[in-house]
Design brief:
The structure is a single chain. α4 packs across α10 and α14 packs across α16. α7 links the parallel β5 and β6. The strands form four sheets. Strands 2-8-7-6-5-3-4 form a seven-stranded mixed sheet, with helices on both faces. It has a three-stranded antiparallel sheet with strand order 9-12-11. A two-stranded parallel ribbon has the order 1-10. The longest helix is centred in the C-terminal third of the chain and has 20 residues. 41% of the residues lie in helices and 13% in strands. The protein has two domains: 175 residues, Aspartate Aminotransferase, domain 1; 250 residues, Aspartate Aminotransferase, domain 2 (3-Layer(aba) Sandwich), CATH 3.40.640.10. The chain has 17 helices and 14 strands. With 459 residues, the chain is an alpha/beta fold. It binds pyridoxal-5'-phosphate. The site of pyridoxal-5'-phosphate (PLP) has 15 residues, from α4 and α5. Pyridoxal-5'-phosphate (PLP) binds next to α4 and α5.
Length: 459
């Protein structure tokens, strides 16, 4: 019998209490936080969907590995466990540990970036873009058109527009393009997957022009599982093999292990190019640590090695993708518009469509995020006019191309009843959305305004 209920494929050994508050308390907390959810203490949050980064639960095996961590400065056993696991998965020779994804980006783009250069991608994640631009190079995104058609389902909205990429390469010349980055899954555009066919097409294009292709592989396992579910010819293929095939197409990769390595901190940079890896290790020693720990403790390396195996368990991935879909279906059931289909790590609500009575200058997505906290104690994050923060010369905020609220789901942390609760709160908001009011800025810095901006209810 194939049962239709897909259950969490784990039982719970350690628990911690949720932050239970009253609506009245939350009203005061929101005001004190200046309507910016980054200013709220996590203890005052009931369900925290701010991010899936570093917020997952480790397994008993990983906690066991923590006790076995070898804390030797050089040549620790835990490093070699980590190195051999990353090699087995990616097939690359040069494995460099880092404390998180952006450290790999800083090092890589210091080596290969610089003025007059372009990095091309399906879409750069924001820390990637920031590190490319900090080096003096320009970050160019080539997403497919379906990516912006939020209501219309498509299986691989994370794909790159290969024709547009080719046109750009011909225009600028391959010599000015040291790297192509494929982000799997495509975090910035809704956690949408990239197909194997698209990875192959981009690889072919890059090969033709002699441009190396790397994967930004924070969510490689979720991407591989989507290929199994949605791409012709992969239904019977083990997810590990699909993942290995993805890496085979690439010349290198970096990973924020805070996502699909199922740990709370860590990352790596991996490649075959000895010239680049030699330079990268010099920078690693300068800023992160010696080449066999890279800013991590031995126990962290041990936990990553175990997590990289656990994440390819197909029962885990089935639960992971199903639970995100379940939240998406629940919201659609209440008429809440989302990026459809939901991504791997979260559901993105289209606040522009949900709250048409709030003008972009009054931050509809931020208003919705605040309402979610006020009514339900749920923390989410705005991806819209406040985050992009473009202002005209009079200081008036310009509408961002999208106005989204991201509900990111931590790995192995919440159960279905937690998600049912989130859906119920959305049902209430959908029925009472006229009561949700916009916000005005009190003050906001020029750079990354969403982290520290202060707001107040609009008059
Ligand atoms: C999280 C993430 C990063 C940055 O990693 P950190 O560990 O947060 O520094 C880079 N790329 C992608 C796709 C990510 O999701």
């Amino acid at each position: 019998m194939e049962w239709k209920t897909i259950i969490e494929p784990f039982k719970i050994k350690t628990v911690e209490p949720l932050g239970i508050t009253t609506r009245e308390e939350r009203q005061a907390i929101l005001a004190a936080a200046h309507y910016n959810l980054f200013n709220i203490r996590a203890e005052k949050v009931l369900i925290d969907l701010l991010t899936d980064s570093g917020t997952g639960a480790m397994s008993a095996a990983q906690w066991g590995g923590i006790m076995n961590g070898d804390e030797s400065y050089a040549g620790a056993r835990s490093y070699y466990n980590f190195e051999s696991e990353v090699k087995r998965l990616t097939g690359f020779d040069e494995i460099i540990p880092v404390h998180q994804g952006r450290a790999a980006e800083k090092i890589l783009f210091t080596v290969i970036g610089g003025k007059g250069k372009y990095i091309i991608s399906n879409s750069h994640f924001d820390t990637t873009r920031a590190n490319v631009e900090f080096s003096g190079a320009q970050a160019m995104d080539f997403p497919v058109k379906e990516a912006m058609e939020f209501d219309k389902p498509a299986p691989f909205k994370g794909n790159a527009d290969v024709a547009a990429m080719e046109k750009f390469i011909k225009e600028k010349g391959a010599a000015s393009i040291p790297l192509c980055v494929m982000t799997v899954t495509n975090n910035s555009l809704g956690g949408q997957p990239v197909s194997m066919e698209n990875l192959k097409a981009v690889q072919n294009l890059c090969r033709k022009f002699g441009i190396p292709m790397f994967l930004d592989c924070a969510r490689f396992a979720e991407n591989a599982y989507f290929i199994k579910l949605r791409e012709k010819g992969y239904a019977q293929c083990p997810v590990r093999e699909i993942a290995e095939s993805m890496f085979e197409l690439a010349d290198g990769a970096w990973m924020s292990s805070k996502k699909d390595a199922l740990v709370n901190i860590g990352g790596f940079l991996a490649m075959n190019n000895r010239d680049w890896s030699g330079k990268a290790r010099q920078l690693l020693i300068l800023t992160e640590g010696f080449s066999t720990y890279g800013g991590l403790a031995g126990r962290d390396l041990e936990a990553i090695a175990i997590g990289l195996r656990e994440v390819l368990d197909e029962n885990y991935l089935q639960y992971r993708i199903r639970s995100t879909q379940y939240l998406g279906e629940g919201l659609l059931g209440h008429g809440v518009p989302i990026i459809n289909p939901p991504g791997g790590h979260g559901v993105y609500v289209n606040a522009k469509k949900f709250l048409p009575h709030i003008k972009p200058a009054n931050f509809p997505a931020q208003a919705l995020a605040c309402a979610l906290y006020l009514e339900g104690g749920i923390r989410s994050v705005e991806i819209g006019t406040l985050m992009f923060g473009k202002r005209d010369k009079d200081g008036v905020y310009q509408a961002a191309p999208m106005e989204l609220v991201r509900l990111a789901i931590p790995r192995r942390v919440y159960t279905q009843s937690h998600i049912d609760y989130v859906i119920e709160v959305f049902g209430y908001l959908a029925a009472n959305k006229k009561n949700i009011k916009g916000l005005d800025i009190v003050e906001a810095p020029a750079i990354l305004p969403h982290f520290t901006a202060k707001l107040k209810p609009a008059k």
